[in-house]
Structure formats: C-alpha cells, structure tokens
Amino acid sequence: MTVSLRASGPVSEVIVCHAAHVATDQSSQRTVIVGASLAGLRAAETIRSEGFEGEVVVIGAEPHRPYDRPPLSKKLLAGEWEPDRVQLRQSDSFHDLDVEWRFGLAASGLDLRTRTLHLTDGTSVEFDGCIIATGAFPRRLPEQSQFAHVHELRTLDDAMRLRAALAGGGKRVAVVGAGFIGLEAASTAHQLGNVVTVLEGAEAPLVRGLGHEQGAAIGDCLSADGITIRCGVRVDRLHDDGLLLASREGDIELVDADVVIVGIGVVPATSWLFDSGLELRDGVVCDATLRVCSADGDAVGGVYAAGDVLRWPNELFGEEMRVEHWTNAAEQGAAAAKNLVAELAGDERKPYAPVPFFWSDQLNLRIQFVGRGPATPDDAVDVVVAAGSHNDGKWLALYGDPATGRLRGALGVNAPRWVMPMRALLAERATLDDACRLAAKHAAG
C-alpha cells in the first residue's frame, strides 16, 4: 500500500510513505479521522498500534501538521519558542504512521446511510469507520472580525498574529474573559511588559471550573503581581480605540486598548453535522464507549468521537460531561480508536471513564486540577482548603459532593505533590474525608 500526505490549502508539501503491513481481510477497510489536532493524531497512532491494516485518512482543516496548543498562550506567544517547537511529532515518526493526511481541507457533511464524508473541496470519502475530532472554535464578540486590533487565541496562526501585536511591550492590552485561556494570555502579555486589564462578566475569575472562592483567590494572586482584573462587567461593543463597557445602571465606559484579546470560551465544531442525523447538544452526544448517538438516541455503529467536540456519560462520576483539556483529548483519541478497531474486528468495546486532569501556568502560579469542579457557579459543592493557604500562594482545595460525601475534585496551586495523589483517590471513589486525611499527611511530610 502507498499513501501520501497531501495539502489542499497553503501547504504544498507531498510526502509519500510505503506501508510495511501484510494484507489481511482488514486491508479493504478504510477509517477516516475528521480533525488533525491532538485527538486526531492520537487516534491515528492508536489505530495503527492496535493492528488495523486498512487505509487511514486524516482530514485537517488547518494547513499545519498536528501541533500542541498549550504553548500557544505561553512559550510561543512570549517569543521563547518558534512554531517548529510546538509540533507534536518529529518528521520521521510522523511519516512512519502509514496514514494519508489531507491538510487545509474541512468536512462539510456526513452521510450515515452511505457512510460517506463530504469535504469542502467537493470531494467525498467513503468509510467503514469514522472518528470525529473536529474540536471547537472560539466564541466571538459581535463584529469582532471588523477590528484589526482584536484577537482570539485558538490556532497557531492566531498565536503568531497576537505575538506580533504584543512584541516589544508598552501596549495597553484588554483581555475579555477571565477563563484559563484569557488569564494565560494576560499573564504572557504582562510578562512582555504590557499593561494588562482583564474584564470578566462573572463575579470572579475561573468561576466556571473552580467556583467563586477558588477563582477569586487565583485572581487575587494575579492582581498582586500587576494584572488588573475587573469582574462583574459587561462588554457592550468593540470600539476603534478599545472596547465599551456597559454598567448595570446603563452607563457606558470606554476602556482604551491597543490590543484586545477575546477569550470567552469555545463552541464545539458541529455545524457541518447539522444534517447528519446525529444528536447534537453542546457537542456530539456519545455513549459511554464514545460511539456517537443518533437524534433518536441510538448508538451509530462504526462512528466515534474524541476531544472537545463531544459529550459522553462518564460512569466514574455518574454524569454527562464535555471536557476541553489536553489530557482528555489525548486519552480520548486513543480510547475512541481502540473501541473502533475492536468493533471492526467484532471484539468487545470498553467504556471511557477517566479522572479528568488539566493544568495552567499563569505568572508565578502552577495550577493543576483533577476531577470535576462545579459544573455551574450555582452547583452545591463542598470546598475545603485542606493544605496550605491562599495567603501563602500555595494551597490544595478539595471539592466534595454534599449528597454522597464523595471526593469530586482537587485543585492544587503551586502544590503538585499535594494534588496529584488525589487522582488515584478519585478513581477509587474515595470520600472527601479520606482525601482530607491524605492531604494532611502529605502536607505534614
């Protein structure tokens, strides 16, 4: 079998790789992976490592080979790394995968009846198995694209444009949104010598993932290091000189900014699936094995999803979730691929039930979280600072379910030795009391 790496966008590179697989009955099957970021790459690698010997085609909307997104708001944005440093694989290992890569080309539709993927260049790909890993795209403010000084941060190209705008320092930078991406970008902009103001509509930063108290504590640390954070404010509209805020009383205030960074969350990239017959609800709805579900609630054979684009029932936590972080994309890409190969071979599939984990670097803060925080700011969750303190800038906060007494999540700020043991406790369905005792033991040692 001979396969090629092709680009339909700005990249004109063509790389031909020769397969060493021995043909089997599987050699007539084709798997297509829609999305060439981390989840798609891990899916492709796992399909091969699991012994699938048919064709594997990966469709990537961007013109770039798979790259790592976390450095986009840190090392790359700061100018400490160049784009080649964020590539997820070296050229040799990338080429040896025996996969056809089609870059600069997006999916436009999915026909489940004929098992055909339609592409934006008018071509189609028939498949036996499919993994949807199209990720998400940033939410935008009205008329955002009309302002050259307004930026978002999702892709490598976004990061390079923003890097050029921040370089040299001395700029007035307004960041809309105090989530993880917004605060990471704010931290890098501040380190580059810019004057940074973060504007957040909620009453504290990071409320969505960490809750009010812990989000406010992290915001206080960043404020103490020189970043201005204003919460409870609403952006009314963008302006050539920055942006306009509307108060609760209806007053309008102009915030001057040479650079505006919009970080107000993401939307799952599912618009190309609207006519597919799949159930779409803030993402592609899947079963516990990551197999997609139809609008009628039935699982669709041979079609799976991975990464930011899907929501599924995590049996460990007993809830449906959609997770937007690096570790989940990597692990989920592998899990979806294993289950797809198992299904194609007639073998048993396994539920995907991990303990979610993510991290974030913001100025002098190393933030790590395992498990689940409050799904909404109004969720009833017991939160205990079990080691350290906010005043010390190093602490461990534990999140418990008041209905069951179980440990739900753990936040570590500059405390990796305290937080990481909690991942095993979560997998064991331990109680909040168990976690508090273990935290006291580690803190004392």
The tally of helices reads 11
Please compute the radius of gyration using only Cα atoms: 23 Å
Q: Segments where pLDDT lies below 50 for 5+ residues?
A: 1-24
Looking at CATH, the homologous superfamily of the largest domain is FAD/NAD(P)-binding domain
- Average pLDDT works out at 92
What is the CATH domain class of the largest domain?
A: Alpha Beta
Strand order of the largest sheet: 2-1-5-4-3-9-22-21
Largest sheet data: 8 strands, mixed
Structural class, by secondary structure, is alpha/beta
CATH architecture of the largest domain: 3-Layer(bba) Sandwich
Beta-strand content bin: 25-35%
Give me the count of strands. 29
Here the CATH topology of the largest domain equals: FAD/NAD(P)-binding domain
Count of all domains:
3
Helix % is 10-25%
- What coarse outline follows from CA principal-axis ratios? globular
**How widely separated are the two ends?**
58 Å
